[in-house]
Amino acid sequence: MLHCPSDEDYVQESDELIQMFLDQMSDDLSYFEEQLVSKNLESSVGEILRRLHSNKGSAGALGYNVISDVIHSIEESLLDRKSAQHIEPLLAKVDVLKKLINLSRNSKLTRPQFLAEYEKIGREFKSQASFSQKFKVLIVDTSATTFNYLVKNSKLANVELNSCSNGLTALNKVIHEKYSIVVCGAVLHELDGPALIAAIKINESTSRVKTVIMSSNRNLKMLIQPDFIISRSNTEYKQILDWIEQLSLVASAA
Predict the structure, then answer these.
(1) Contact by Cβ (8 Å): 163, 138
(2) CA-CA 20 to 30 A from 249: which of 54, 179, 190, 197?
(3) Confidence at residue 11, expressed as pLDDT on a 0 to 100 scale
(4) Which residues of 28-65 are buried (b: 16+ CB within 10 A; e: fewer)?
(5) Tell me: the pLDDT tens digits for 55-82?
(6) What is the DSSP letter of 182?
(7) DSSP letter assigned to residue 166
(8) Which residues make beta-bridge pairs with 184?
């Protein structure tokens, strides 16, 4: 007897369908592991993504939502070149998938026992994924000085620093890429700093993003006040960096 989370009768009554899915995913995971261990990921990433995407679609159709979530997480890591360089987290996610496959094949379990363990694995994975998620900070400035200072002096591995010089580009990034903090200059291309901060704060999906504007003018006219206004000095850069790292630690512990 094979187990599947789906409540659909046609799935529950078809061990053959479930077996085909589990066998195919097992083969694809073996291929993925081989490429990771042999450090051949760069040349095979296209084929790996193709196989994973097929597995994710089949998992969704069969009600394996946890498997879909884990595969989606792997896909995101592979598409992020920085994350793809770290093999251990990818292998850990493969192990989660193997654990779910073995669980589905465990004929000694009753369906309630299977579902309880399946959901437990899903909760553990989501908890771990939340803990390891990058705390993203966007530096929007026409000068690279601030970005370079923060990159050089940041000591926390879970803080991801990115930069751009265009206000409209920055707004698009904040809306679509889940940034936690935006540090910007007052003068930017296309959309200036005060307007960028106002756009972030009035958008319901980004209103909780923390904002900092850099200006020597402490009386800078703002449409909506940022969390901080700082001058361009190493002393104040350090204060902002300390604040960023404190917030990232709080986010990791939440």
Answers:
(1) yes
(2) 197
(3) 64
(4) bbeebbebbeeeebeebeeebeebbeebbebbeebbbe
(5) 999 999 899 999 999 998 899 888 876 5
(6) E
(7) B
(8) 140, 213
CA dist 15 and 11 (Å) reads 8
- 213 contacts 184 by C-beta, under 8 angstroms: yes
pLDDT value for 172: 94
3-state SS of 116-140 is HHHHHHHHHHHHHHHHHCCEEEEEE
Cβ distance 89 to 132 under 8 Å?
yes
Evaluate whether 139 touches 162 at the Cβ level (below 8 Å): yes
pLDDT for res 59:
94
Handedness of CA 122, 123, 124, 126 (dihedral sign): positive
Paired sense of beta strands 181-185 and 210-214, if any: parallel
Residues of the chain with pLDDT under 50: 131
Q: What amino acid is encoded at 193 in this protein? A: G
> How would DSSP label each residue in the chain?
----S---HHHHT-HHHHHHHHHHHHHHHHHHHHHHHTT-HHHHHHHHHHHHHHHHHHHHHTT-HHHHHHHHHHHHHHHSHHHHT-HHHHHHHHHHHHHHHHHHH-TTS-HHHHHHHHHHHHHHHHHHHHHH--EEEEEE-SSSHHHHHHHHH---TTEEEEEESBHHHHHHHHHHHT-SEEEEESS-BSS-HHHHHHHHHHSTTTTT-EEEEE-S-TT---SS--SEEE-SSHHHHHHHHHHHHHHHHHHHH-
